[in-house]
Write a structure and sequence with these properties.
By secondary structure, the chain is an alpha/beta fold. It is built from 27 helices and 24 strands. The strands form 4 sheets. It has a 9-stranded mixed β-sheet with strand order 14-13-12-11-10-9-22-23-24, with no helix packed on it. A hairpin with a 6-residue loop joins β23 and β24.
Length: 839
Amino acid sequence: MLLWVFLLLGHGVLSRAPIPAAWEDGLRSAAWVAAAMSLAAAAAGSRIHARVKTSLWLRRAEIACGVTALLAAGGALGGEVDRMEPPLPVHPRATPVAVEGRVLDAVATDAAHPFITLEANAVRVGDTASPCRAALLVRFGDDGLAPAWATPGLLLRFSGRFRPPEDARNPGSGAPGRWLERLGIAGVVDADPTSFVILGDAREDGIPWGGLLRLRLARVLSRDLSAPVAALARGMALGDRSGIAPTVRDSFRDGGTIHILSISGLHVCVLAGIVAAIAVAFRLPQSPAVWLELLSLWGYVLLVGAPASAVRSAILWSAMRAGRMRGASVRPFAAWGTAGLLIHLMAPDVLEDPGFQLSFAAVLGLLASGGLRLSLPEAPGSPGLLARVRRLVNGLLSLGQQSAFAEAGTLGIQVLQFGAVPVAGLFLNLAVIPLCGAFMAAMLLHLACAFLLPPFEQAAAGAVEVSGLLMLRLTSAVATAVPPLPARALPSATAIGACLALLLLAAAVWEHARVERRAEDRRNARACALAALLLAWAVPFLPSPRARDRSSWLLMLDVGQGDATLAHAPDGWILVDAGPATETRDEGRSSVEPALRAEGATRLDAAILSHAHRDHYGGLGWLAGRGFLRALYENGSDGGGAWRAPIGSGLRRFGAPDVPIRADTTVALGERVGARLLRADDGGFAAARPGNARENNRSLVALLDLDGNTVCFAGDVEHDAEVELLAHAGAREAMGAVRVMKVPHHGSRTSSDSAWIATTRPRIALISCGEGNRFGHPDPATVGRYLRAGARVYRTDQEGAIRVTFTRGGALVSTRAHPAPEVVSWGGDSAVTPSGHPP
């Protein structure tokens, strides 16, 4: 266990300190030298018994050199990770390709967004073809037919558009490409469904039995179970979450039971426990029973792709069963450290995997809880009924304690990932975990009947339905009744580290006390466990020290086809629009909130909604429910729309006003930031325009004064509203000093005419639009007009999130795709880069 702890420390030091990956070889050499010195000191110390003082110094040298070797080895592993993870592209260009290969996995062919995993053996780009050997994720698109014909082992030829793994497009968000890399996938191909040609079976390369078995099991579950229960079963048994509805995922996340939906240590232990119970029922001898358990256990882990959490659980189970067979003392804490060490050495980048972090932290919390025992005192002479009640209560207290410690181990990590404390998980896990065991047992029985006893198949499927629907309904009800507590600030890394260190200490002291049977160690373990528990539950709410940012800047987020921009001044935070929300993705949750927390914005002084279209208001419901909004300013359109319900509920819950703007208004948001909200008088043209254009022209136009720099957020105003706004002398004068323009209506051809650009004369033009959107935004002619006027144009569909930091006489512009700042000067006729060359 100590080996892994010191490796983790070395890895952590390298990740926190500016040590280049090029030091990997040097650190590895230092580790070998220090390890050799430690072994030499140990050998010398073993020969010296008479000279106690010399032996003591050799022992200290052995420990010091050993620790140095482990820290250097951890640093070398960290350097290896940096070398293995080169920077990923943002919005990489799709390349037309023709691919030949064999199907590896086809479990998700019946999902709402079907895909298969393919091992490519030849790729053609243009007229050039070359052999290759890489795993690809092949997507069929929302409009394509589900590839139900796809079977593991089939040789295919098809054409499509290849895209390599992609980096995060916004600050605070995870890179989807890293997830693909951890799965060993080299990229994604959006296939043309009409181009597929089946070439035959890949007999010479071997039949992918694992893929065939997964597909057969998935189809049996989908055939016999209702859609939500089948999706739950496939996620829990096969790791296929493609069929799980977003609302179900939200319920399990908010209820603190998200670990149920994917392959975790719990599922592996449940499976091993069921196999052990079957062995006991058939009275198998100990040795064959253990071998049956281990073969079933590791076969299942390999079948589901050997995720880190499943491998960890399998190593722990194997170590404990082997120890009991040999009659040796079982040390779960040492087995936990051994599992972490082995997985870390096999895949150094696994430390960045959230599943790995949550799995190991949860088990650490459980191990730390051993020293703390909550129970009712035993009353002498109590009757049998009272004794049974006491045992029941003590059992519930023990389960509650374990749930609290498991949550304590993962709490800081969960807040970093989800931004909330799932308090419902404290008691919901007490019911869901036993239900999970019953569900998996019923599912195994159903699969056994499907293959061996078909007449009983439907009866067994009924048991799966009952336990599955009960788990879904219970989780949904509790998560709704007890919503998670939002933690708007990022917890301190120091506080999370201190909490995990205390849990580590509590687990180590308890294991020592359990083996040595010393009362003093038990008291120490109890004190450490209690301190770790209290600190863990306080971590999400501890203020994180952060230097005050005295600069003024804009951050236009990449939310696809929509708008969301964060503006910061030394005394204020403003959000203009919040991106779209659909049935499968809410940009308020997935993009805006992570960016707010990453930038240190715990509360927004104001949110401005330009107009009542989903690509602008979609994320506001989520942000209002999380308590980010102090006030909302909007144009008041569609007062009875259903979309207003979640926004209004969140605003009322946190006491934030909703202020409709009917005419030009000036709002003071701080000493150094103000907003002038303009609205075109739509009485003269509203009736003559179609619905979307009419609401676009009602957009609020916000002029923000950020440290003397005027930024214009023009919503989706079109030509009619532009003419109406410029007809008023006051508005025309205010807009004549614009430095940065949020280009109206995503750069469409119906906006930004020559008069608008000639009046505003922006130096920077920001366009928020979705990559390959069906509207064709931005229009090339519109972009050309801004370029001819001398503006530097930036687009989220090419650059990802765009940051504009105001400086004296200009601004620094950096994007996710090109993070090196570019200098744009307010004076002169052209923008220049820091090197002095035209961009």
